[in-house]
Every structure is written in structure tokens, then in C-alpha cells.
Amino acid sequence: MTTIFPTDTDRLRETVDFVREQDATTLLPLLLPGLDALELRALVDRCRFAHAALLIFPPTPAALRTVLADCGLSADAAPQPSVVVRDRLAARHRRDAADLDVHIHRPRVTGPAATGRDGTGRSVEVFALTVPPGSDLAPIAAHERARDHEAHVAFEVDRPDPLVLRGMCALLARHGALADGGGYNPHEDGTVLYFTAPADAKTGYRRIELYAPGDHRDVLATHLDAYRARHSAETLLRLMTGAWTTQALAVFADLRLPDTLHPQAATSTEALAHAVGADPDTLATLLRYLAMLGVVASDRDGHRLTALGALLRADAPDSLRPLALMYGGPFYRSFGALGHTVRTGEPAFDHLFGENHFDHFARHPDLAELFDRSMAASSRMFEPLTAHPAVTAGHAVPRPRTVVDIAGGNGALLGRLLTAHPHLRGVLLERPHVVEAARRTLDTAGLDGRCAYLAGDFADVPPGGDVYVLSRILHDWDDDRCREILRHCARAMHADADLLIVERVLPTDHSPSLATAWDLHMRCNVGGRERRADHYARLLADAGLTLVGRTPLPLEGTVLHARRAGTLQPTDN
């Protein structure tokens, strides 16, 4: 049987009616049935019923205005960004908060019944996340409409101070309300404390908000500690299932489901199973999991490919399919032996396969090709490099300048630089079995007349280049090997040559970073590591080079700019 959920307009209209019918005196006993008369009076004297809230998902901003107007609400006031709801959605659906542009609208509810005894009007708080047709946010919208996680009633605290707020939190907790998150919104200078209503609450709203104007982050910190204590087991369980996500995405890519699905037209489970050779019932389970991740969008008509899932299509520009297969294949197996690396400091890959990563891939051409394609899959990291001053400087020089890409894989980065700057020449230094693949790639791009190929090792870095590039090379090696590689570069570089090093750089604090995850990955699989910028500066200095600048790149990458020691160069941004 198909469940039909109310439309956003119906949900909003019900919320408006509720706001008109209630005030703090009538609503608090419904939410906290155990309140006695003195406790109710204490709460009513310190706060007022301010609004009821819900989260809706209009396809366009114009559709949102229509929904508000249909419910007798004005959309004239400018909305504010919602930090708290955005972050809650990101955590609940494992999405980047930057992809969730949630805004708050607070239209007033008109009519005498919606005005408190102090003359203050009440409102409806509308959280809006625009979800266009076919968007990869559609699974989030379906999940949230069905469960109404963000629906709540709010009480604004009059003249808040820490003592009053702590007392109110304690009173709610005494009657069964549980801490349920919150946050400080700098856009409006207000602190939000959420609670789950007690099980015996006599209203459909299961969440309560206390809103306190101003910055009360000391009280908020205590409140959030109580929330995390309740959810620690759930959080840990979610973390434990990370391997399931890796394999689900790898199987999704391996079966070529992204290439079979369409972004607009729905495809049934049975049709997909027939197309890719899968068991329909088990495939349906996989697709439900992928829909939860936002990789596909599913409804009663079938399944569609989202923009997120489209990155795994084989024909997508800079397709991430090779990465999914690599992380779900050889690297997944070696990560299963991470304990060996932690105990011994030795790469788990070597322990598992009996040889190091590079030798093993060299003996298995199919894996070598997959590895090179997986490295090229992150080529969007390279886009800003075409505008780096060390690369663009050649426009003012009459002679052609030469870029030397050291261990440049299949030539994806070098090809991007040569295509962007016709005045450049290129040299690709790589292992013999990789050089031929790179030659085919660059010849296909029409760059055969502007690129030379050199089969060799790091000891064979050729002199005469103007720009030398080490893209994601140093993190493969320990410090001694890095110094050796950098000394080969320094010997080849003339006095005005530049060295560009592309890596993920570890933060100097404990802030979240992809580099932190890749640090563990490198130690486990190749015996290398990620490093801080000052660590790279010391390695460069040991090789007679100077770090003169650093510039951020996409995918949390960084380009470190180095020159021969004693050569001055403006610092990069």
C-alpha cells in the first residue's frame, strides 16, 4: 500500500491553525503533563509561545512564495540562513553542510487569536530547502516530510541570563524532556536549545525549542553534552558502518548502475536487475541504502540517478568510478589489515600482498591502469593550477617555457596545463609501462608535438625545465626518500625555476580535514604520510630549496611553491 504524505501547503496550513489556537499557558501543560501550578507559572512568567516550525522543500523560490501566500502568510521579510537546521540535516543524512542552503522565514500569523496577552504576535517558522525536480536532495526531502524531524514549538525566553536558562533546562529535564541538540546562530545573535518532549506529551509536536536572544554558548555547551551522551551509541554505530558505504558505492560503480540509470526518467528495480545482471530483491536493498546516501532518488515509480551518483558514471568528466573501484578493491583489502600497520609501522599492503604497492601494480597491468585512472579522477584538484603565477609567468617570455611533470601518471595534469597555455612545452617523467599510456592520452588530446616523454625514476629528473611539478608524489614516501627526491629536483632546477608540489596538507590544529583521513590511508597502503606545511618546509630546506608560498586547491588540496634557496619570490595567496 502506498503512503500519501500531506503536501507542504497542507502541513503549513495546519501549523498556522495550531499557532492561532495555543499560547504558553495552554500549550506547556500539553507538552509537559507533570507540571504543577507553581512550575507552570514560573515558566509562563519567563517565556512566551513564539512560534511553531516545520521544514518544507519548495522546488523553486517562487513556489515557496506561492505556498506562503496560499496559507495567508507574507514572504516580504528577507530570510536568514539557518545554521542549526542545516547542520542537523548534514549530520542526519551524512552530507556536506555547504550543499544544504537552508533559510528561515518567520511570517507573522494574523488575527486576534495569534496575539499574546502582552501584545506580542506569534509566527510560523518556516525552514526552506529548495529541491528542484531531479535534485540529489530529493531523498532528504522525502525522508524529512515523512518524519518531520524539524517540526517543533518554540518559546522565547524574556530577559535571558545563564541562571534563568539553566533553571528552565533543569525544569524541562525534571519532567521528561530530553536534550536534542541546538546551536548559536550568528546571523541573528540567538541561542537555540532543542528538547524532545516526554513520551506522555499530549500534542503531536515531539520537539520543544527554547530561544534565547544573545550568545549563551556556556549554557549551550552543557546542553549539547547531555545530547551527545544520549546519542553516543547511535553515533558510534553509524561510524562502524563506514565500510558498508565503501562497498555499496564500489558495487554500484562495478555493476555500472550509474550508466544504466537516468537522471529524469525512473527505472524499475526489475528492469535495472535485468540490465546489470543482479538479483532484484537484493538490488532493491542496495538501492534503498544508496537512496539514503543521496546517490539515487527512489519513489514508487522507480529509481533515478542524482547529481551525486552521476559522478560515478564511466563517461562523466573526471569520473570518480576508478576511485570507487580502487577503494572498494585492493585498498579495501589492505585496510582490513590496518591493525598490522598500527602495531608495526609497516604498510598493511606489503604484509597482505607480499610486495609494495608500486611493484604489485606494475606486475598487474589491469590494476596499474585502474590506479592511474583513479589518480586522474581527482583532476578537478588541478583546475586552479593553470592560473598559478609560476605557470602563467611564461606569457611575458619570448622563448617557450617547459613544464616537467615528475611521475605524472597518465598525463592528466600536464595535459591540462599544456591545453590552457599553448606557449608551454611539456616533459613527462614516468615508469616505462606508464609512459606509453600517457603518450596515448596526450596524443589523443592533440599535444603530441609539444610533449616529450622520459622513462625513468626520480634520479632521472631532467635539467632545463622552468616549472617542475610533483603532484601527490611526496606523500607516498618517508622523509628520507622525500629528501632524496627533492635533491634530484634541486640539482635539475636552474636559478629561476619553480617547483610546484600538490598535496593535501595536515591542519595545524585538530580541525576536520581530508588530509587526516589520507594520512592513515597512506601509512596503511604505501608507507607514506601526509604532512603539515612546516614539515614540508623543513624537507625542502634540507634539499636546498625554500618554500615561498602556498595556495589552496579544490578537494582540500594545496599547491606548495618552492624555489632554489636564496631566490626571492612573492608569497602566493
Mean pLDDT: 89
Oligomer designation: single chain
The number of helical segments is: 25
Strand arrangement in the largest pleated sheet: 2-3-4-1-5-8-7-6
Gross morphology: elongated
Largest sheet: 8 strands, mixed
Task: From the alpha carbons, calculate the radius of gyration and give it in angstroms.
Answer: 29 Å
Quick one: how many beta strands?
17
- Strand proportion, as a percent range, falls in 15-25%
Helix and strand content put the structural class at alpha/beta
Helical amount among residues, as a percent range?
40-55%
Low-confidence stretches: 1-5
Straight-line N-to-C gap: 58 Å
Domain O-methyltransferase dimerisation: 238-311
Organism: Kitasatospora cinereorecta
InterPro entries: COMT-like (IPR016461), COMT_C (IPR001077), COMT_dimerisation (IPR012967), SAM-dependent_MTases_sf (IPR029063), WH-like_DNA-bd_sf (IPR036388), WH_DNA-bd_sf (IPR036390)
Pfam family, one: Methyltransf_2
Plain-language structure description:
By secondary structure, this protein is α/β, with parallel strands linked by helices. The strands form three sheets. Strands 2-3-4-1-5-8-7-6 form an eight-stranded mixed β-sheet, with helices on both faces. The protein has a seven-stranded mixed β-sheet with strand order 13-12-11-14-15-17-16, with helices on both faces. A hairpin with a 2-residue loop joins strand 9 and strand 10 (about 300-305). The longest helix is centred in the middle third of the chain and has 24 residues, at about 215-240. This is Methyltransferase. Keywords: Methyltransferase, S-adenosyl-L-methionine, Transferase.
